[in-house]
Amino acid sequence: MPYNEVRTMLEKQKQGQAVLIDLDGAKALSELIQAMGHDPAVISVADLQRIAERLAAIARKDPPWGWRYLRNVLNWKIEASRKLMDAIMRLGAVIDETPVELAQSERVTVQALGQVRPGALVLADSRPCANPLCGIEFVPRHPRQVYHAARCRGSNHRGHKDHRDLRGVMR
User: Fold this and answer.
1) Residue 36 counted as domain residue
2) Which residue range(s) make up the domain with 136?
């Protein structure tokens, strides 16, 4: 599978319907630890803590998981959370040479006016258009861009009270 089509094991197939896969957190974590060059049966506390911190970084979890949580998952004392399982799959993808930005990204549906290829990585956050009657969420071309289009900026600055003629165009 090409790296731009990486999917996590917990990714949803359809809106509101999760993939049903029986995941063993202890086995997945054990395989990850082995892939990182450690023996899960005798891994040190310091090494387990470093792995916990790498997992938390890829999952953007703050505060990070601790070594005790990973040890309890490894020993089948507790089940791995969905977030930990997702982080294990993502870190595994990074170990398999997937760029970290793609491993951390979320797959979403985007409406594009420019040339955006399937699987492209969007490096900016979307924001709502500053025109209160618009309702369009967009990715700005520049950090100071607050309106998605010139017509929204113009109609909002002119102080139009009645936007009925623009609503069909803006929504």
Assistant:
1) yes
2) 127-170
Which tokens in the block code for residue 130?
A: 């500053």
Taking the C-alpha atoms of residue 46 and residue 41, their distance in angstroms, rounded to an integer, is 14
Radius of gyration over every alpha carbon of the chain, rounded to an integer in angstroms: 22
46 phi/psi in degrees, rounded to 5: -60, -45
| DSSP code for 122 | P
- Please tell me whether residue 136 adopts helix, strand or coil conformation: coil
pLDDT in tens, 38-92: 999 999 999 999 999 999 999 999 999 999 999 999 999 999 999 999 999 999 9
Residue 45: inside a domain:
yes
Residue in the structure block whose two tokens are 């399937």 = 118
Please give the tally of structural domains in the chain: 2
Classify 28 as helix, strand or coil. Answer: helix
Q: Are residues 84 and 158 in the same domain?
A: no
pLDDT tens sequence across 90-149: 999 999 988 888 888 887 888 888 888 888 888 888 899 999 888 889 989 888 999 988
Query: Quick one: 51 and 85 in the same domain?
Result: yes
Say whether pTM exceeds 0.85.
no
